[in-house]
Every structure is written in structure tokens, then in C-alpha cells.
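Design a sequence for this backbone.
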């Protein structure tokens, strides 16, 4: 009887991941196959001529070099901003510490198109920052003119990515054993010498690991480059792939360019995984959860903490708050002064006659809500069944690798694959929307997997063994024991998938035709037509969704199964 139970147990967890594995393979590898095959297959048959032509073209080579350059400089700028914050968080206890930690989580959950809009509204020639500076110093011309330039790209990437480095490095730093530093002080070394000779070398694995991840994100950046770059001079690989496929109709050239992007991304991910393994072996953590914190004892320390708190608050909250404030402003005439108004929200809800792209805003909102709900409902069961197998099977790491593979390919390339599929199918509007849902699911699965899996691994095996010993079968044990314990993680994963879909811009723009409208697409069109207030109204809705994600994820974070 016991052998029968063991056989049922093994069979259940062997069969459980099969549907989700097949679905993920179809969703990810089929569009990827269409993309890659277009790079090698022409009307004359299989050939490398298209690849050779693209990679030997001086224009393409310049784009490749610029993509690597902007990613490198963006990573260095993110390091420059993040490391002082990591030092403060890991070393000191001060009043603004919780505020910095809370604010640093904001860029993790806001979509890239919202970052673009925030920077236009805050740093633009007529933006809030220039208005404030012109008022304070009584200037007639805007003192800052950085939009649609290379500095704008670096600044936006820094805003979007420095919290990643700050969080990862500070977490590693505050758990490091401090005995080495104590011994250095005892032997007469100064704080500066101790830091550069002992602390910094021990921090390098964490810094390199975090910087590798940020470089990957900057390399695959799309919306920031597309809007803030301001033209062909600052084109990157992702933008050029989109331009070749959708503007010029050269899908073969776009697919050939995708090979370079996939190659670099795969190398970066392999390097990141290697640094993560080294990071796990490089230090012995303290048994306590945190180092004993100390308050800034000197005036320079207090000033540094105050300065960093104010600057980081302004840097993070400024663009986001500007979007919300601008959404409630309108002028009665073209030359009139702006005042508080609900005009854009009335147009959004069709309570007032809308003009331009605001005509499609309500449809875009409803489309985004429906698509995001479908993505959340479909992604959570797929990720959950993968988590079951990963936790139970000894070779679960292979499934975990499969679940994370969509992160190796940018959203633009995923969108290109589905665009090529849609060209072959030639279906109607429903087919096009279905492909958008599938593309969003591909990009959401890794994040949902990473949300549920850590909580699943916290559930003690004794719970499952006790249920099986009492006569319950594997399915009943899963439904009545494991599933209720994972309810919070599943809810968090569903909300993350919902928010990711609501803000997904890259794949949707590459895949969708003019008849498919979502919230980010209409925002992009409004920005292009200089209707920034209308774009801000839509952006405020996205901010509300992101805020909900942040609050729910914080409330549902963790799970205690040790009682």
C-alpha cells in the first residue's frame, strides 16, 4: 500500500508540469524559431548572406557599438548613484533610511513608457524642474536642455536601474562579517585604508553581479531610447530591430539583428549566473539578520545622509509626481494659463468630446484591463505547476532554467516573432489580440515563477508527508495543503503579471497593428503628438496600478510555515 502511495506521489509530480512545459515551449520557442529562421531563409533558400550583409554594414556596426557604449555608461552612472546609498543603508541608521528603501522599490514596478513620460514632464524645457529653476533664479530661458539627447538616455537609465545595484549591494554588505574590518582597525589602519584594502575587494563580487544585471537591462532598453534618444543618431539594436521590421518591412534584416542581441544577452546571463555562484561562495554571512547599525556620529555623516535622502527623493519622486500633477492641469485656450482641471479624465471616460489620440483612450484602457486580466489568470497556473515540479524533482533546475529562458530574449524580439506568426496566420482582430496576450504571458512567466517559487520552497516537507500518511492522495494534498499556503504568493504573482501586462510596451508596439490599442501604445502616440497632459492622465492610471502592486507585494511578502 505504501509503495502504491509512493508511485502515485511520483506520478503526480511527474505529470503535473507537462502541460505548462508544453505551453511554455510553444509560447517561447515557436516565435523565436520564426524570428531566427527569417534571418537564414530567403526566397533563394537557406543562406548566410543576410547575416553577413547586416553584420558587415558600417551603419549596423555603429549601432552595435553605440548600444554597448550607452549600456556601459548607463551602468557606470547607476553605480555612481547607487554605491553611496548602499553604503548608507548598510552602515548607518538614520531617519530617511526607510524612505530611501521604499522609494528605491518604485522603479522596479513602473513600466518604461511611464519613465519616459515622467522625464519629459519633469526635465523638459517646459518641465517642472526648469520652471522651478527659472522662478528661483529669475531666468528667461530654461537652464537645462537635456531631453532628446545622449545625457537624457543615461539619466533615465540611471533612474530606472540604480535601485537594483543599491538593493543588492547593500543587502550583501550589511550581512558581511565585520571581523576583518575590526582586525584592521585594531592594527592601526584608517577607515579609508580599511575600506579600499579590505571592504571594497570583498564587495566586488556583489558589485559586479549587480552591474552585470543592470548592463543587461540597459542593453535591451527600448522605450527610453525610442523617445528620449531623439533620432537615428542614438539608435540602439532594439530600436533598429523595430524600425527594420515595422517601418521598413525588412523582417529578415530585423531577424538578423536579433541574433546579435540574443548572443550578447545570453553571454550576459551566463556571466550573471556565474557571478551569482561566486557571490554565494565568496563570503560567510553573519548569523544575525543584520549588522549592528550605528548612527552617523559626525556632522559630515549626518549631512551625507540628509543630502542623499533629499536628492534620491527628488530624483525618484520628481518625474512620477510630475505626471500626476500635470494630468490635472489644462488651459482654457491655447494662450491661456494652465489651471486645475479634470478635462483629460473626462475625455478618457468619454464624458467630454476628445480629439486626436484621446479618442481611443477609453478603448485602450478597457483593452489593457482585459488583456492584463487574461495574462494574470493564465500565467499563474503555468508558473505554479512549474514550481511544483521544480521543488519536487531532483532535476528541477532544468525546468527552472526553462521558466527563466524568456528573460534571455528582449520583448522586442518576442514581439517580432509573434508579428511574423501573425503575418503567416492572417487572422482577424481577435487573433491579433490573442497573440498580444500570449506575448505578454511569455514575458510575465519568469517574474511570476520567481514570486511563487521562494514561498513554495518554504513549505516544510513534513506537511505533505503527514497528509499522505493520513491517507490523502497527492492531488488532495496539493489542493488542501499546499495551495492554501501559496495563496498569498499566487495573489502577488497574479498582480505582478497584471501590472507587467498593463505596462508592456516593447512587444506590443512591435507586434500590434494600428487597430490594436493598449494604454502604453496610446501614451506613446500622445507623447509623439505633444499631448502630454492626456498622456499624463493615462500614466496616472498606470501609476495607480503600480502602487497597488507595490502595496500588495509588501503585504503578501514572505510566509511563515514554521509553526
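Sequence:
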Amino acid at each position: 500500500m505504501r509503495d502504491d502511495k509512493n508511485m502515485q506521489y511520483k506520478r503526480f509530480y511527474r505529470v503535473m508540469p507537462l502541460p505548462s512545459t508544453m505551453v511554455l515551449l510553444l509560447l517561447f520557442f515557436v516565435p523565436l524559431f520564426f524570428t531566427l529562421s527569417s534571418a537564414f531563409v530567403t526566397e533563394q533558400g537557406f543562406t548566410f548572406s543576410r547575416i553577413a550583409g547586416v553584420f558587415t554594414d558600417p551603419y549596423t556596426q555603429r549601432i552595435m557599438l553605440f548600444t554597448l557604449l550607452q549600456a556601459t555608461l548607463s551602468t557606470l552612472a547607476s553605480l555612481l548613484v547607487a554605491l553611496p546609498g548602499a553604503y548608507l543603508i548598510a552602515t548607518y541608521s538614520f531617519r530617511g533610511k526607510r524612505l530611501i528603501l521604499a522609494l528605491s522599490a518604485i522603479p522596479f514596478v513602473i513600466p518604461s513608457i511611464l519613465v519616459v513620460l515622467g522625464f519629459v514632464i519633469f526635465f523638459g524645457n517646459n518641465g517642472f524642474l526648469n520652471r522651478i529653476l527659472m522662478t528661483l533664479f529669475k531666468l528667461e530661458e530654461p537652464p537645462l536642455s537635456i531631453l532628446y539627447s545622449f545625457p537624457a538616455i543615461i539619466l533615465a537609465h540611471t533612474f530606472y536601474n540604480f535601485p537594483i545595484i543599491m538593493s543588492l549591494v547593500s543587502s550583501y554588505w550589511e550581512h558581511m562579517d565585520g571581523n576583518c574590518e575590526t582586525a584592521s582597525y585594531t592594527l592601526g589602519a584608517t577607515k579609508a585604508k580599511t575600506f579600499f584594502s579590505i571592504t571594497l575587494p570583498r564587495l566586488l563580487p556583489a558589485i559586479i553581479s549587480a552591474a552585470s544585471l543592470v548592463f543587461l537591462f540597459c542593453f535591451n532598453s527600448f522605450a527610453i531610447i525610442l523617445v528620449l534618444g531623439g533620432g537615428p543618431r542614438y539608435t540602439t539594436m532594439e530600436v533598429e530591430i523595430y524600425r527594420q521590421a515595422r517601418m521598413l518591412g525588412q523582417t529578415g534584416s530585423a531577424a538578423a539583428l536579433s541574433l546579435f542581441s540574443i548572443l550578447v544577452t545570453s553571454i550576459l546571463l551566463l556571466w550573471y549566473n556565474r557571478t551569482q555562484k561566486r557571490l554565494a561562495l565568496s563570503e560567510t554571512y553573519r548569523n544575525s539578520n543584520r549588522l549592528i547599525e550605528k548612527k552617523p556620529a559626525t556632522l559630515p555623516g549626518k549631512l551625507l545622509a540628509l543630502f542623499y535622502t533629499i536628492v534620491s527623493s527628488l530624483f525618484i519622486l520628481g518625474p512620477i509626481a510630475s505626471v500626476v500633477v500635470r494630468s490635472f492641469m489644462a488651459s482654457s485656450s491655447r494662450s491661456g494659463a494652465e489651471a486645475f482641471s479634470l478635462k483629460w479624465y473626462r475625455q478618457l471616460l468619454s464624458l467630454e468630446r476628445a480629439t486626436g489620440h484621446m479618442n481611443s483612450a477609453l478603448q485602450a484602457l478597457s483593452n489593457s484591463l482585459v488583456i492584463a486580466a487574461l495574462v494574470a489568470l493564465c500565467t499563474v497556473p503555468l508558473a505554479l505547476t512549474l514550481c511544483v515540479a521544480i521543488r519536487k524533482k531532483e532535476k528541477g533546475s532544468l525546468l527552472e532554467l526553462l521558466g527563466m529562458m524568456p528573460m534571455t530574449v528582449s520583448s522586442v524580439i518576442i514581439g517580432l516573432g509573434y508579428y511574423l506568426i501573425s503575418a503567416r496566420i492572417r487572422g482577424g482582430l481577435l487573433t491579433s489580440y490573442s497573440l498580444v496576450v500570449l506575448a505578454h504571458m511569455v514575458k510575465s512567466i519568469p517574474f511570476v515563477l520567481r514570486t511563487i517559487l521562494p514561498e513554495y520552497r518554504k513549505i516544510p516537507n513534513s506537511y505533505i508527508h503527514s497528509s499522505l500518511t493520513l491517507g490523502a492522495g497527492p492531488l488532495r494534498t496539493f489542493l488542501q495543503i499546499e495551495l492554501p499556503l501559496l495563496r498569498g504568493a499566487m495573489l502577488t504573482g497574479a498582480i505582478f503579471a497584471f501590472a507587467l501586462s498593463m505596462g508592456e510596451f516593447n512587444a506590443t508596439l512591435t507586434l500590434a497593428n494600428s487597430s490594436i490599442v493598449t494604454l502604453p501604445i496610446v501614451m506613446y502616440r500622445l507623447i509623439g503628438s505633444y499631448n502630454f497632459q492626456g498622456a499624463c492622465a493615462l500614466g496616472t492610471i498606470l501609476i495607480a496600478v503600480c502602487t497597488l502592486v507595490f502595496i500588495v507585494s509588501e503585504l503578501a511578502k514572505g510566509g511563515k510555515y514554521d509553526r
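Strands lie at 41-42, 45-46, 329-331, 338-340.
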